[in-house]
């Protein structure tokens, strides 16, 4: 077995071993299935022995494996350090070489420019022209005289938020501007790029982006109101871009300054000197320029610091710098240098104001509630623009309220929707009022603007409210409950001294009046329909439960009903009178929930018209009925109306309104049942 295993092991380990050929030969030499099974068993035994030997070798050399791994790790660390040192040395050597070459190049360029100024300028122009011929849409750039190319190179633009590559670009730095062109995927002839943007050197700032692998070799261009990030080929090119950009910007600023000084007109006429000691010269004294020290480092760097603060959205830092400058120049004379500095600062103030205005615009995200606007509002107030801050704050909140109302889903019962609508609107209004009081505590003149805004916001709310409650033809009871909910929420605003109840009532009065009149007409039509089918018979409720339910309903309306019922299920009143009583009392209760002072006469006249329909029907029946028994039953119903129902209506109306109901009292007196003859024939006058 061991000898066979050794032979099999040698066969399997030989370099010329072919598994397919071996299996084929083995199948031909085998007598049957039994031989193949035995051979398979031998191979399996050999595999087990090999695995066992391998495991023993691992255990035997375990310590040696660990030591070898440590040595490999240590060697890897040393190789990494060595590579890092070599890279640094290479970078230093390249920097030294580049510095020497640039120095020689600058000296040569200066010598050539001094010797051949026109030829040098023409060379720069031709170089820029040849390069711009490759840019689609950049033909007009060469129209500016004196413009020439300073530096150019390939870039990769990255997204500022996600830091993912957007597109390949090529930048052309000229002596007064920076051109950004994007690569064309489908090139046409010599055209390789497409015009993307052109920035004046004074309109942007350049910021170095710290390397954070894999994001490295990047710099950021900050301009209002955006910023762009570009990546270059390596750190050397990045350094060149930063240095050349900075040097070109400084040279452009210096040239502009010299141009302004040359443009100042100087009079060749010698000024007359007055000997009058009392004459006062209106102009600034010559030594006033020296009296204002603007050479401080923070003043010299102030415009650029403001640009950086605006680009980085550090609004507080920008306003702090402006306050510091204003404090420093408060008692200083307005010299020419001070005016120039203020002109530069005023331009930054304008940019800062535009950024803050953009922060408060409704186009921005409206999440975060009123407190999210506090930062921009406070800085605008510090800049002395409280009126604009107030206007933008209220516009922002109006857009937020409108968006919240629009996003509210209309589902389920109307009353549930109104609960959600009132909760969203009045909570937002309350939060806005508190935030307004916090932000504009020292600007009492802005409070009138908030009152006007709150009315316009209430108009927006009532539009959504009426559309859901009144335009959808909901029942009067549902409308009354919805109006009651709105009134209760409106009362919450009195906590901060803002009473919008009158505004709510004045905006709802038209829809509520229409709902009352519409429901009044429905009751009158239903009453007339029942009157046309009146048989003047007693009402049979069939079950004691139904009678108990009717008693409870009448008791809840405040009507004494016991004397008109007996032990059985009969009621000594007609169905028409009972239905009319229930419907009219329901109308009265819902009308009191909807009551506004402006609707006093509307509700009163509606009740009067409804009562007259029933009274006239009873009066007509008494005059026309010939059967004595039915006439007595009609009289009993008339007495119920006059002595029980009408006093309850009159009293409940006066309790709910707080005013006497003279029309209802006069109506009750004019409809008193009287005897027409001694034989108990009665009528209603």
TrEMBL record:
Compartments, as annotated in UniProt: Cell projection, Growth cone; Cytoplasm, Perinuclear region
InterPro entries according to UniProt: Cullin_repeat-like_dom_sf, Exo84, Exo84_C, Exo84_C_1, Exo84_C_2, PH-like_dom_sf, PH_domain
GO process annotations (BP): exocytosis; Golgi to plasma membrane transport; protein transport
Region (Disordered): 252-286, 664-685
PROSITE patterns: PH_DOMAIN
Compositional bias annotation for Basic and acidic residues: 252-263
Keyword line: Cell projection, Cytoplasm, Exocytosis, Protein transport, Transport
Domain PH residue range list: 148-250
GO annotations of cellular component type: exocyst; growth cone; perinuclear region of cytoplasm
CDD domains the record matches: PH_RalBD_exo84
Primary localization class, coarse: other
Family of this protein: Belongs to the EXO84 family.
Job description of the protein: Component of the exocyst complex involved in the docking of exocytic vesicles with fusion sites on the plasma membrane.
PANTHER family: EXOCYST COMPLEX COMPONENT 8 (PTHR21426)
Name listed for the protein in its UniProt record: Exocyst complex component 8
Designated gene of the protein: EXOC8
């Amino acid at each position: 077995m061991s000898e066979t295993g050794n032979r099999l092991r040698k066969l399997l380990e030989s370099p010329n071993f072919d598994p397919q050929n071996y299996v084929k030969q083995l199948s031909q030499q085998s007598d049957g299935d039994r031989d193949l099974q035995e051979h398979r068993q031998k191979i399996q035994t050999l595999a087990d022995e090999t695995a066992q030997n391998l495991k023993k070798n691992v255990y035997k050399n375990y310590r040696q494996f660990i030591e070898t791994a440590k040595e490999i790790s240590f060697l890897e660390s040393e190789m990494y350090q060595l590579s890092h040192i070599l890279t640094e040395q290479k970078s230093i050597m390249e920097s030294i070489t580049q510095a020497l070459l640039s120095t020689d190049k600058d000296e040569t360029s200066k010598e050539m420019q001094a010797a051949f100024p026109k030829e040098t300028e023409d060379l720069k122009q031709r170089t820029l022209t040849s390069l711009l011929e490759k840019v689609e849409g950049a033909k007009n750039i060469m129209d500016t005289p004196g413009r020439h190319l300073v530096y150019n190179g390939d870039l990769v633009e990255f997204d500022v938020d996600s830091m993912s590559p957007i597109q390949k670009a090529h930048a052309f730095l000229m002596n007064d501007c920076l051109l950004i062109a994007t690569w064309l995927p489908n090139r046409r002839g010599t055209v390789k790029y497409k015009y993307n943007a052109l920035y004046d050197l004074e309109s942007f700032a350049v910021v170095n982006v710290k390397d954070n692998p894999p994001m490295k070799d990047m710099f950021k261009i900050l301009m209002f109101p955006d910023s762009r990030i570009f990546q270059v080929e390596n750190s050397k090119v990045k350094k060149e871009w930063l240095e050349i950009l900075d040097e070109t910007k400084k040279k452009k600023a210096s040239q502009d300054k010299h141009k302004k000084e040359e443009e100042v007109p100087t009079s060749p006429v010698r000024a007359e000197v007055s000997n009058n000691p009392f004459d006062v010269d209106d102009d600034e004294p010559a030594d006033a320029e020296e009296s204002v020290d603007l050479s401080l480092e923070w003043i010299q760097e102030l415009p650029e610091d403001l640009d950086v603060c605006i680009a980085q959205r550090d609004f507080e830092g920008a306003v702090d710098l402006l306050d510091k400058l204003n404090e420093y120049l408060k008692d200083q004379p307005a010299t020419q240098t001070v005016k120039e500095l203020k002109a530069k600062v005023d331009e930054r103030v304008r940019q800062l104001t535009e950024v803050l205005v953009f922060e408060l615009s409704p186009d921005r995200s409206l999440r975060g509630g009123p407190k999210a606007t506090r930062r921009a509002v406070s800085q605008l107030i510090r800049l002395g623009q409280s009126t604009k801050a107030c206007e933008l704050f209220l516009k922002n909140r109006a857009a937020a309220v409108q968006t919240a109302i629009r996003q509210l889903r209309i589902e389920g019962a109307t009353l549930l929707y109104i609960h959600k609508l009132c909760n969203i609107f009045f909570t937002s209004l309350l939060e806005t009022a508190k935030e307004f009081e916090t932000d504009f505590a020292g600007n009492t003149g802005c409070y009138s603007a908030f009152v006007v805004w709150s009315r316009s916001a209430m108009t927006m709310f009532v539009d959504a409210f009426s559309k859901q409650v009144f335009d959808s033809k909901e029942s009067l009871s549902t409308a009354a409950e919805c109006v009651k909910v709105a009134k209760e929420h409106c009362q919450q605003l009195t906590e901060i001294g803002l009473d919008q109840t009158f505004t709510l009532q004045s905006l709802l009065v038209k829809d509520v009046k229409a709902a009352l009149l519409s429901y009044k007409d429905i009751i009158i039509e239903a009453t007339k329909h029942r009157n046309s089918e009146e048989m003047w018979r007693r009402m049979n409720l069939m079950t004691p439960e139904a009678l108990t339910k009717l008693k409870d309903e009448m008791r809840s309306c405040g009507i004494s009903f016991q004397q008109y019922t007996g032990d059985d299920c009969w009621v000594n009143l007609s169905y028409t009178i009972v239905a009319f009583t229930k419907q009219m009392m329901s109308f009265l209760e819902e009308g009191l929930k909807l009551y506004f002072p402006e609707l006093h006469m509307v509700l009163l006249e509606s009740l009067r018209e409804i009562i007259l329909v029933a009274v006239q029907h009873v009066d007509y029946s008494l005059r026309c009925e010939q059967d004595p028994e039915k006439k007595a039953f009609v009289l009993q119903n008339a007495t119920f109306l006059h002595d029980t129902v009408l006093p309850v209506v009159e009293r409940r109306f006066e309790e709910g309104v707080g005013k006497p109901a003279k029309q209802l009292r006069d109506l009750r007196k004019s409809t008193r049942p009287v005897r027409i003859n001694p034989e108990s024939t009665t009528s209603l006058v």
